[in-house]
Amino acid sequence: MKRLRVLALMHKSLVPPEDVTGIDVEAADWMTEHHVMTTLRGLGHEVLHVGVAGDLAPIRDAIRDFKPDVAFNLIEAFDDVVTWDQNVVAYLELSKVPYTGCNSRGLMLGRDKALTKKLLAFHRIAVPEFMIVPRRRRIRRPKRLGFPLIVKSLTLDASIGISQASVVEDEDKLAERVRFIHESLDTDALVESYIEGRELYVGLLGNQRVTALPVWELSFANMPEESRKIATERLKWSLSYQRKHGIVNAEAKDLPPGLAERVQAICKRAYRILLLSGYARIDLRVDPGGRVYVIEANPNPQLAQGEDFAASALRAGIEYGPLLQRIVNLGLRWEPGAAG
User: CATH for 129-193?
Assistant: First the structure.
């Protein structure tokens, strides 16, 4: 395997310390960055990390001085604006530096939950009915959008702003939750039909040729009966909450015959429709009647060792080191002009 110069790009606040002795890495905010850098070095690559906040100059300087073979992109925001991560990738494209993960056009489409739904619906992939409530606008709920509804941020991911109160049953609760999204998160609100059923995830790898990893499921087996089975912010990030309620993120079991293959095929179609590349995760719901709904796409999902993407890859026989090497290889082969 050729030794590469890898420029690891990450948020400035998530640069791991050089010495992690005595630190619980698995509880650190920079766990993913640490896993990626140490694994790439273990594979024999020369890795230079650059912390990025609101200035492209550190990237420019590193490209000039380090002359990387590839940039390993772990950036999910620029200047603390999540929708600007695509601009960092566009800068890499203009600089003609190969990079890992999704291309700039795919990031733009995949990050916009409303645009994602419109594109998929046009291609006859089922998505929940939805509407957007922009900031400082009144709610005008169309009749086609019946209760219960779930209210989210249009642009933020990682379940930010999602709680049990996000699922609403009447106009007053809808107005209250939309106001919370507008005022607390300072984003437009996405209001969509709440799909009761199983929550599934599918990781995908590839550029023009796409591989779907085994279907993963977020299981709510021990949640209180009155609770909505949704991936709240607390559920996603609190280990104590997960242990208390027996929340398990693992390979989907006991799916009806043929459903796993159908879900994987839908996800491959969505990946291509949204012009994704490198790797991504598609989030879905399957209702009790077996109908599959795509909820959203997640370009450049969490890559920490042991998280669902790496765990599903391991189930497919791809260990963590080879997974990162495969992602690097896809980045080296990706041609930005191929998007679309």
Answer: 3.30.1490.20
